[in-house]
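Thread: Newbie trying to understand structure tokens

Hi all, I'm a second-year student working on a class project, and my supervisor (Dr. K.) asked me to get a predicted structure for one chain before our next meeting. I've only ever worked with sequences, so writing a 3D structure as a token string is new to me. If someone could post the tokens and maybe explain what I'm looking at, I'd be very grateful. Here's the chain:
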Amino acid sequence: MTEASLTWHRLPTRVLVLRIVDMLKSFAIPIVILFVLNNDWETTFGIILRVAVLLFIGFDLLQKFFGWRNFRYALDEKTMYVIEGNWMKQEKSLPLYKIQSVHSNSPFFYRLLGVVELTFDTNANSDDASFKLAGVFPSEAKRLEDVLDQSRRRRLEASAESSETEEGSTEKSVTIEKPPGVRLYTLSTREILIASLTSLSVFAIFPVASTIITYIDDFINLDGTFDQIGDWVISASVIAIGVLVLSILFLSVVIGTVINFLKYGNFVLERRGDRIRVEKGLLNRSAKEIPYEKIQAIRIKETFIRRWFNIIGVELVAAGTMDELKDESSTILPFVKRDKAMAVLNEHFSQFAWADTLHRLPKRSLVIKLMRISWFGVIVTGIVVYFFREYAWWLLLLWTLIVGGRVLSYYTTRYARNGAFIQLRTGAFNVRSFVTDKPRIEQIHVTQSWLQRRFGLCNVVLSTRGGLLSIESIEDIPKREADAMLDWFSRYNVENMKTPG
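---
Reply by user tm_fold:
Sure, no problem. This is what the structure looks like when written as tokens:
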């Protein structure tokens, strides 16, 4: 690269402050233990240990300083250049056409200091699939996103001009303007509140309380306190225990609701030209994008409790999505009424068609599901019967859940082929639906066990390109239906075999 012809930029000084704060957070517990609670400078071992910790912290500080000082980046019309390294500098260059999307993230401390973190995703499955600018001013983030938008528009214009030249057209190419953002959905306060009451987040108080108690117990013996609580529970009245339980449940609901508001507050789903953009968060604000052409499938999730309220979650299976952002960036509607979610999908994701009627499994599928041995249930039953025989009556609940889950799986499992599309609905207590079309399927794999052969049933596994291969499967469908799916998938011509994205 020619450094003289480029305008190089550094990360703001406050980014160094963020890195130092993160480093101190990671050393907070050792520092408190060694220098506050047990400040032992009398023994040789204590002195060596504390000096070693201070030297390590000092070395880490120097490393972060030189990493910040050496980092520079620059852009021209076609390429982004980066110089980085703590002790040894490394130079990288990335063509702008390879950058498929930009994700911004603003954790609480970033927002306090007025910077955002940008992640550039190339949608490649390699170690260099993405890189970050961990702290730039919002104005600089906007400039970088505009540069990438201009690069994409130039490629579209060049493609349009090339098509016109091939067709022999003499007309001027039309400049492709940057399309305005279209808001597809926003979460209301009522929706977040209902979602909080119908999710397991209401029990968030228990792991939080357990973590706090564990930390305190490391320094203060709480056995006596637990004994006093146990004595109080034994001697307390039913009303007092009931009030305590209701208070704990109310507090857990409040904590779960606060967590959901912090995570999904100001949630906005937008379409910006050829990409979907999701923004969310109150304290930690994030914005992530998914190019339309990379969408391989749509997945709908229904938890057991939310199914009673007709609430679903929608996520996209996108090709080449980074592993670290896959779950977050793929969810476009976390908890929305089914009719509202389907309205958004039908209007703005019309490249996927949902079947009106889904086929049920034959009755012999239920028979084979009930005949299968539950090794988990057998092992737990053996352990309980041998070691904890007085609690054997709990096995009734265990086997009720196992058998009930298999019956529910039979009744909820559905499948359909609708022209070029295939749709699956699987699960027991939690159910998920999946739809994609034939060109986006990498492969269809059919398996059949000895027991399934006796009943004429098969398992079908679909693979689509989402990050790595994204796998969906349906169990115990008739053999003729599995063969029909294989035949349906194999009837491509060469043009249809090109997987989008």
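A couple of things are worth pointing out once you decode it. The longest helix spans residues 138-166. Residues 258 and 418 are 42 Å apart (CA to CA). Feel free to ask follow-ups in this thread.
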